[in-house]
Design brief:
By secondary structure, the protein is mostly helical. The chain is built from eleven helices and no strands.
Amino acid sequence: MAHKEQLGMVDVDDCTEMLKDLVEKHPDLFGQFLGQLDLSWIYHENALEGVVITHAEMESALKGRPIALDTYYPIRNQKLGLSLIREIASSNEDFKIDLDLMHRINRVLSTDENGTPSEREYRKFIPLHRTYFHEIAQPEDIEQKMEDLVQWANNNMPTDENAIMFAAEFHLRFMKIFPFPKHSGKVGRLLLNLILMHYGYMPAIFHGTERQRYYDTLRHTARQMEDFLRGMMMNCIDNAEKFIGHELKEREKREFRQRFMNAG
């Protein structure tokens, strides 16, 4: 038990259950939080890839009124990706990780004014100037490694108790393949969060301020990735609780002011 507490296992699971109780009491406020969460998620996902976007650009892009094409598609497509994994995570169908799922997510992220990538387009070269610095698979090895990853995933589908460790190891394995010409990082993190959400957890949003730490963790072990992941999950849970608590206090203030005015 001491080892579990050290890794934060008890905290994440217990705090997730407490948040679920809070959400059941205040679903409207949680819905408001999710709207704010998506804006933060889109911002930080792009920041990890070195794309800096403004709040005005996000608002315009999500309303279908792009300010600039170089930010419009990263914003719009990331939002579509979030909607896709939420839909899959909430589906009653058996959860399955396969190549079709990974390519489907990649297609959503890759859609722009030039169309979509081919059905099975893998990376064909090692980029000279890379955002990520960990070792990645040689292009000729990608197809086999992706098939091996799917087999590993389906042979090791987790129980509720080890879902976070599974998500961390899957993410590390996927990122070491780095299969697509673009958006491998975004695809990998959407898959990671799809796994977490399917097992009833809040997503883990890797903040732009944690960019270097995240890159460094990709060079290390699955256990270290799990530790980092748990920290990001706790951050999301904490933000949800703070948002709902703040809104409840604001609601109380409004109700008090209304009662005071009515009494006058």
